[in-house]
Amino acid sequence: MKLLWVKTNLLHPLDSGGTIRTYNMLRCLREQHEITYVTLKSNGAEEYRRQASEYASTLIEVPWHGAPPRSNWRFYAQALANLRSDMPFALARYQVPALKDTLRTITDRSKVDVAVSDFLFPAPHFESLAGVPKLLFQHNVESLIWQRTWERSRGPMRPYWKRQAQRMEHWERCLARQFDHVVTVSAEDADLMRTWIDSRRVTAIPTGVDTEYFRPKHLGVDGKNVLFVGSLDWIPNIDGVRWLVNHVWPLIQQRRPDARLHVVGRRPGREVKRLIARTAGARLWPDVLDVREHLWQASVVVVPLRIGGGTRLKIFEALGCQKAVVSTTVGAEGLPVLHGEHLLLADEATDFADSVLQLLEKPADRERLAMRGRQLVVEHHSWEQVAAKFTTLCQDVAAGNDRLYA
Questions:
Q1: CB-based contacts of 230, cutoff 8 Å, min separation 6
Q2: pLDDT higher than 50, residue 405
Q3: Cα distance between the two ends of the chain
Q4: Taking Cα atoms as reference points, which of 288, 289, 279 lies closest to residue 251?
Q5: What is the per-residue DSSP string for 184-213?
Q6: CB 333 within 8 A of CB 188
Q7: Rounded to whole angstroms, how far apart are CA atoms 84 and 309?
Q8: For 294-346, what is each residue's pLDDT tens digit?
Q9: If both were cysteines, with which of 3, 52, 253, 299 could 59 make a disulfide (CB 3.0 to 4.6 Å apart)?
């Protein structure tokens, strides 16, 4: 097959769940199929462009002005200007007319079996691809994230979040209907998408993990290191860290003042830096090269998410390293994991803290969960298994078949 794969960024560095998921899918697909990867050109290192050969047959970059980070005044200027638009800011900042022209040119010049929009953000550019089978790869249901952000928010920003959530749901519904098929990464997300479009056009394909890379390494862990891993420029993770250090960590410190919290992630902003700096026993590790070094040293991995969507690769990576995990229900949403069997689930601060303390203080419980979690991902969730399901689906979409997968 010839796949046209469109994403707003290059995949390296592999420092977020979305890039890791796409990289491993494409790495497997490229072994048998031709991948034309189209992205918005950034100021990233030339090394990242060279590494695109690991997952793409052809790389095409479209020039654009870039999306400024939250630390830049231009971000807030764009957000303010967006108040006059009916498109949510998260979508509007990635709209580039040249990208639409590039996609039309590619499909006019050569046959494409399936065109894939990776995440929702490139999707508005696909309207010009008449006659080309189109697939939307939804790592999250974006509107669900914004809805949960609004529901959890307080203060003067609450009306803004509500408006953004409403706009995102409208656009996400409309865009999803323009695709021949939608792929989600969890059954829960698939069920939601099926309320918007024909159920035969929605498929849930699970998350995978590289169990050779994320493997156990026993280093004599001392039973006091608690680890959070996640992109620290993503609103759900910022909210999760805020809840963890303000409401959960003080309860843990009361009983275990020797416990240490390690927060690992890319691009932490001022708020996260301030939170960690004033939290006793906590340390921030920004932009690490190899997260496994921290996973191997951890006693317990925590996933304190209260908003979000899709599935959390960080849980499967921790399980691959044979680590005990404590997560909120939202944090583990969409993953085939069971409370008390593969990890512990807790949604209230006191319950979450008690679960972490249980695993810190009872090595046998910690090891039992860790071993069963590792067994789950090894037996059922390799990237090769996931990519094979995705390949079969693309073949059906290219052939015009409506086929329902669980």
A1: 237, 240, 241, 264, 265, 303, 314
A2: no
A3: 24
A4: 279
A5: ESSHHHHHHHTTTS-GGGEEE----B-TTT
A6: yes
A7: 27
A8: 999 999 999 999 987 767 899 999 999 999 999 999 999 989 999 999 999 99
A9: 52
Long-range residue pairs from 188-197, CB within 8 A, at least 24 positions apart, any chain? 188/333, 188/334, 189/138, 189/140, 189/141, 189/144, 189/309, 189/310, 189/334, 192/141, 192/144, 193/138, 193/141, 196/172
Angstrom distance (rounded) from CA 19 to CA 25: 10
Strand order in the sheet with 34-40: 58-62, 34-40, 2-6, 114-118, 134-138, 181-184, 202-204
User: H or E stretch including 264?
Assistant: strand 260-265
Coil, strand or helix at 275: helix
Spatial CA neighbour of 170 closest among 76, 100, 91: 91
3-state secondary structure of 10: coil
Query: 51-76: string of b/e by CB count within 10 Å (b at 16+)?
Result: bbeebbeebbebebeebeeeeeeeee
Confidence of residue 220 (pLDDT cuts 50, 70, 90): low
Where residue 133 falls (left for φ over 0; alpha for ψ -120 to 50; beta otherwise) is beta
Distance CA 271, CA 281 (A): 18
Half-sphere exposure of 314 (CA within 13 A, CB side): 27
Q: Which domains does the chain have, with CATH numbers?
A: 2-208+383-399 (3.40.50.2000), 225-380 (3.40.50.2000)
Say if residues 3 and 394 touch (Cβ distance below 8 Å): yes
Q: Are 352 and 304 in contact (CB under 8 A)?
A: yes
How far apart (Å, rounded) are the C-alpha atoms in residues 386 and 205? 7
